[in-house]
Design goal:
The protein is elongated, with a radius of gyration of 48 Å. Strands 9, 10, 11, 12, 14, 15, 16, 17 and 19 form a 9-stranded antiparallel sheet that branches. A 6-stranded antiparallel sheet has the order 2-4-3-6-1-5, with helices on one face. The protein is 6% helix and 37% strand. The chain contains 5 helices and 46 strands. It has 6 domains: 107 residues, no CATH class; 143 residues, Sandwich (Jelly Rolls), CATH 2.60.120.260; 88 residues, no CATH class; 49 residues, Complement Module, domain 1, CATH 2.10.70; 52 residues, Complement Module, domain 1; 76 residues, no CATH class. The protein has 604 residues and is mostly beta strands. It is a peripheral membrane protein. Keywords: Cell adhesion, Disulfide bond, Membrane, Secreted, Sushi. It holds the Pfam family F5_F8_type_C.
């Protein structure tokens, strides 16, 4: 396809922009005439009409012929191509474009970067097939093109005013030139936020008369623009071998960066160090970490051009097993076709099929699908977040976040402390890309090292040793109790490392109330009052108790109380008695006392 002029086979002319269409796609930065032609071809429509940033696919040739000068607006992605103008469109008869790109990657290198269905032909003369190209899941958005309004370009050659985001992108009007005296040239792409970078694309400068390009370059990246990391320790990436071809380097592992620097190898520059540049990737803030499934990837039957380049297993039962195998082997993607697990670093080559074409049931899970005929179900193995927050013995974590730069602080559980020498900084870990910094040592149990207090007349049992929460129980011996009446007391090991009580009082013998020292007409055979003591009361002076008896026995019970009340003895007159100057009368064993004096003559 010619760049400057629209007059080539298949170009139908400049027409009024169609008012209706059968298919449409638009993009303010990525639209170009080739994309529109291929997109409409993929929709099996005969005409493509491109107007500024819109592509309209129609089934009949538009009307309202316009002069070619009205359709000379440069395309947003490739200004050397024409994309119509205001309310006018360049129209192409697609049937004249018989050439088919060999792969989705080849289409992308020519500027066909929007998601859609496209026709490809793997080899010259081979049957064409329609496949899905450029799905968003693998994180391959052209970032400089897409976010040019927020991208800043700086460089070592401060005299080149053309080295801007508007000029440096692929198929841009010029490129970035470096002065001959610049011994260590570099160009820096600065974003407004953190991005996942999955690939670097380069092209020589747009100057056919003075062809310039960079054959090799190195990469550095940074989050803050101050601390820089060399990509793969300064490994040289392969650049261009002519001024116009586009060369993609898919990174062996994605990187996280706000700032990316490209360092051309000056000794490999053709004529002079000049380049156009794109970075592929996606925003970290909107990346779906949980979505590992990439799609139903089409595999070629050509053994020399297969997408899946490494066989990891022929007996893999689950996608998770295949992902682990390919990750361990250093690949970015894992694919299953039945039980065959294979790996790759680039899976976009021949596009994607509808998920229904991957219809083989996974061996280890009938609910999952593992590929189809010449199809692989593919998952990404790479992560841009950390594994699960590591557990630390006897400690809790402040967060479960696994995102880059997340910090997690550990706190010991009650009853545990950090080992001696653990500094405060060690208690917090940070997620750096996809790995945690070293976790702290596990917390150690607090011990009550002092001896337990002793208590007389008790038995002691301890549950939990001497760790925090341990309980020591003091139990009084039989017929003993603590002051206050209880028979048990407990002491606990506190988080301070001390027992909850420094002393425990002794258990005292349980005693019934003392025998009265002023008994009337009665004597006792003992003053013992321990539990189980039996004290006999004997009436004297021809006296008796209220029931006529002359003896009583009181027992001291376990409760510390006597089994009956204490009684005095009085004189017995038949059924009447006298005691302490009063008369009484017994009725059926009940003592009824009449409160009259001894000198009274009558009993009322």
């Amino acid at each position: 396809m010619a760049e400057h002029t629209p007059f080539f086979l298949g170009f139908s002319g400049c027409y009024t922009k169609p008012s209706s269409h059968q298919a449409k796609v638009s993009h303010p930065r990525l639209m170009n005439s080739l994309l529109c032609i291929e997109y409409c071809r993929g929709n099996d429509l005969p005409y493509a009409a491109v107007s500024n940033d819109e592509c309209l696919c129609v089934d009949t040739k538009p009307t309202g012929s316009q002069s070619s000068s009205a359709c000379s607006l440069g395309c947003p992605y490739n200004p050397m191509q024409h994309c119509g103008g205001t309310n006018v469109a360049n129209v192409y008869l697609i049937g004249f474009y018989y050439h088919r790109a060999p792969s989705c990657v080849a289409l992308a290198s020519q500027g066909v970067l929007l998601e859609g269905y496209y026709w490809i032909s793997e080899t010259e003369g081979a049957a064409s097939r329609k496949v899905q190209c450029n799905p968003t899941a693998p994180c391959h958005t052209p970032l400089i093109h897409t976010y040019s309004s927020t991208v800043t370009i700086t460089h070592s050659n401060s005299t080149d005013n053309n080295c801007t985001a508007e000029n440096i992108y692929l198929y841009g009007p010029s490129g970035c030139y470096f002065a001959n005296e610049d011994t260590e040239p570099w160009v820096q792409v600065s974003f407004d936020q953190l991005y996942i970078i999955t690939g670097v694309v380069t092209q020589g400068s747009n100057d056919p008369d003075n062809q310039q390009w960079v054959e090799n370059y190195a990469l550095e990246y940074s989050e803050n623009g101050v601390n820089w990391t060399q990509y793969e320790n300064g490994t040289q990436l392969t650049g261009n071998s002519n001024f116009n071809a586009v060369v993609l380097n898919t990174l062996t592992y994605p990187i996280l960066a706000r700032y990316v620097r490209v360092y051309p190898s000056k000794s490999t520059c053709e004529n002079n160090c000049s380049l156009r540049l794109e970075l592929n990737g996606c925003k970290y803030s909107s990346f779906d970490h949980s979505l590992q499934y990439v799609g139903c990837v089409i595999e070629t039957t050509d053994p020399n051009g297969q997408v899946m380049v490494h066989s990891a297993s022929t007996s893999c039962q689950l996608p998770s097993d295949c992902i682990d195998l390919c990750r361990a082997a250093g690949f970015l993607y894992a694919g299953l076709q039945g039980a065959n697990c294979s790996c790759a670093n680039e899976v976009r080559t021949y596009g994607y099929a509808a998920s229904s074409h991957c219809d083989i049931t996974c061996t280890g899970d009938s609910k999952q699908r593992c590929g189809g005929e010449n199809r692989y179900s593919v998952w990404r193995t790479w992560e841009v977040r950390c594994p699960e927050v590591p557990s630390v013995g006897n400690a809790t974590a402040s967060s479960t976040s696994r995102n880059h730069n997340s910090q997690v602080t550990y706190s010991c559980l009650p009853g545990y402390v950090w080992p001696n020498g653990t500094i405060e900084a060690e208690k917090t870990i940070t997620c750096t890309f996809n790995n945690w910094t070293a976790p702290p040592p596990g917390c150690e149990a607090i011990h009550c090292t002092s001896a337990l207090p002793t208590a007389a007349n008790t038995t002691l049992s301890v549950v939990g040793g001497d760790e925090v929460g341990a309980v020591a129980t003091y139990t009084c011996l039989q017929h003993y109790r603590f002051p206050g009446g209880s028979t048990t007391k407990t002491v606990s090991c506190l988080t301070t490392g001390q027992w909850s009580a420094a002393s425990v009082s002794a258990c005292e013998m349980i005693l019934c109330p003392a025998i009265s020292s002023s008994l009337i007409n009665a004597v006792v055979n003992s003053t013992e009052r321990q539990v189980g003591s039996a004290v006999e009361y004997q009436c004297t002076n021809n006296t008796g108790f209220g029931d006529g008896g002359t003896k009583r026995v009181r027992l001291c019970l376990d409760s510390g109380q006597w089994d009956r009340a204490e009684e005095d003895c009085g004189k017995v007159f038949g059924r009447h008695f006298e005691t302490d100057g009063h008369f009484g009368f017994f009725e059926k064993g009940c003592h009824i006392q009449f409160l009259i004096s001894h000198s009274d003559k009558d009993i009322v």
